[in-house]
Design brief:
Elements: E1 6-10, H1 13-16, H2 31-40, E2 44-48, H3 64-67, H4 87-104, E3 117-121, E4 129-130, E5 133-134, H5 138-150, E6 157-161, E7 192-197, E8 217-220, E9 223-226, H6 241-246, H7 268-275, H8 278-285, H9 288-291, E10 295-300, H10 313-320, H11 324-334, E11 339-343, H12 377-391, E12 401-402, E13 407-409, E14 415-420, E15 433-438, E16 449-455, E17 458-464, E18 469-477, E19 482-487, E20 491-497, E21 500-507, E22 515-519, E23 525-532, E24 538-544, H13 564-568, E25 577-584, E26 588-595, E27 599-604, E28 610-618, H14 619-622, E29 626-628, E30 645-648, E31 653-655, E32 661-663, E33 671-676, E34 691-693
Parallel strand pairs: 1-2, 2-3, 3-6, 6-7, 7-10, 10-11, 21-28, 33-34
Antiparallel strand pairs: 4-5, 8-9, 12-14, 13-16, 14-15, 15-18, 16-17, 18-19, 19-22, 20-21, 22-26, 23-24, 23-27, 25-26, 27-28, 29-30, 30-33, 31-32
Helix pairs in contact: 4-5, 11-12
Length: about 700
Amino acid sequence: SLGLNTVRFYFHWGYHSPAEDSFISDGSRDIEELLNLCEELQLFVIAAPGPYICAETQGGGFPTWLLAKRNVRIRHLKTHFLKKFDAKLAEYQKIYYRNILAILTKHERTTNPTGCVILMQIENELLHKVPGITFADDEEMRSLASCARDSGSTVPFFHNDDMPHGSWATGKKNHYLRNCWLPSTPQYRTDMYGVDLYFVFAPRDDRADRSSVSVGPFQVGGCAAFLEFFCIGGLGIGGDDLDCIHCLYKSTSAVGERTAPPPNGWNTKSLAGYIDTLEKKLDAIGGAAEGAPVVCAETQVGWINQWARKRDYDDLYDYFGDSFSATLHSSLAAQGLAVINYYTAYGGTNYGASGDSEVYTSYDYSAYIREFGKVSERGRRLRLKALFQRSFAKYGIAESVVDSSLISCSLPNMLLKVRRAARGDGGDSKKPRFIFLRNFASTEKAEKSRLTLAYNDVAFPCELAFKDSLILPANVQLTDGLTMHLSTIPVATRGVVAGAELWVLSLSDHPFGRVLFRVGGDLTSVQVQWTTIDGSLNGSTKVSSSDKNAGESQWKAPLEELSQAELEGGENGSLPVDVSASTEANIGKCVSLAFHGPCATTLLDQNGAVLMRMLAISEQDSKTFTALLDSSSDSYTPSANVGFACAWGAEEICIFPSGQVSVEAGRDDRTVYYVGSSTSPPSPSFVPVASVVQDVL
């Protein structure tokens, strides 16, 4: 599931009702079986029954027999922008809702402890308003929501605004254009506010692209409008049918030349301008956008490809690049958002006439899982961000607030935001911090930018590639005597194994960064036992306050003056881990670790008790890394006998809730590594590799 714990399903009215007075839910249309499978896999579900679901599917989801009824007005516009409620359409919609809700409500988490459905999306991009103008008729949403409640649904409702305008968010009285001559009435308000986030689009080539011109939004004085304002109807303006046919084939003519957008060419200003003020915009909207978790209903993954575009989906994938989604996820988390749905994880294929005529048979979308079934690098990088955010849920990352105190960076424009966790013992100073870094400042020519990051005047090195991002934890208390002060090495995830914390770190080819612990209480020394991942080397290092130089500061330095030798980290570069003790002015006794290669480490106190474990894997191995999170995360219903488990080493690995490991067929010379807290080791269902190593720690 790419580290994600929820899936959103569109339910196509026309697919389930191919003929009037029919509703089919068996065979390939079996909704019950689909939801049972989600419960077996412990995946939450956001149900989106429409009735309108998507522009790129046949009829937007409406049945063709309904579209053929000339006396039914579907999404009727009384005039430009202003919509009118159609009672006949509402009656047909209610019949469909009653049929599908009879199935969905049985699986709702609010009434079924093992159910998977946690949210319901009512309609789809039914634009309600932009500042100053109300478009939609309130009866449309109210009719659908009332029918869903009357059909027994008890989960929270939301609607996906096409832009952050506040549609259906506040329930305030209507003082806008359409009803300025009528008495003000309260508008329908959803339980949660949802919004779509699309803001990056591959450039057109007007010389070669022969598809019709798209109708799109433009800005006038800060409020969005559409070309329909100028009475330009339809989805196409211009274009030439003959050129459309010609450009489906490669030739030497200008018409037939293939013109791909530039690789990794998306504009950083588009992301920053749209996302970096989102928290402020949502608070300004108020209502459900301020007082409840916001649902990022459709967060951009890639884009569609229309007929006659002089590019293919591989070109679109290259345009967005490998790091787009991971960086977008970090940017959204920096805005305090935690309900993030990505559109689309798998686009697949439009069989028959299931797709709208705007697109063609392939709906690859340059998604995380490509049309041919392989997980993309973009999906693998997102998985690490998702696992991090979910595994740190126990520390309140989702309820965090902005707090940049005591944090500084040698390249300030790379420090996106710092958030203080909502949970934690003691006052605010004792609560964990999450530091969000993003490199939109350097150039593509620089492979990675190096910087130093300081927390409470203790400075550590860090590196970050162009258009990449990091979420770094700080001030995390692990035991009474051990607190992780700062890690500038990326943390992939965390869990509990054999009663102690396990943190998984992702090391670059030339590891750059450190992990610093504050030592206090009765803890007088720390022993670090280590072993390389393949078990060829192992050793142990013990540090204490009585060591030479342990009473001196090692990391108190101006950010721009930290020496390169210190950045590279220590004298024992031939060993996989370097350990040192120091005393820092503002935080006291410390132990720091620098990793020079993949290894498993265990930290023990002076009595031999385990304090925590760290598993450092290579950046290459992190691409295949996956994990089953334990009950300290936001997992579905973790099995008590399985707990945390992780594995890496093969292209496709799946750890099921039962603890069973499945490895995809492929190369037979790879070793799969597995770490878990189950009482009995899992039995791989199919392992076409050299071996499964289970004793890494």
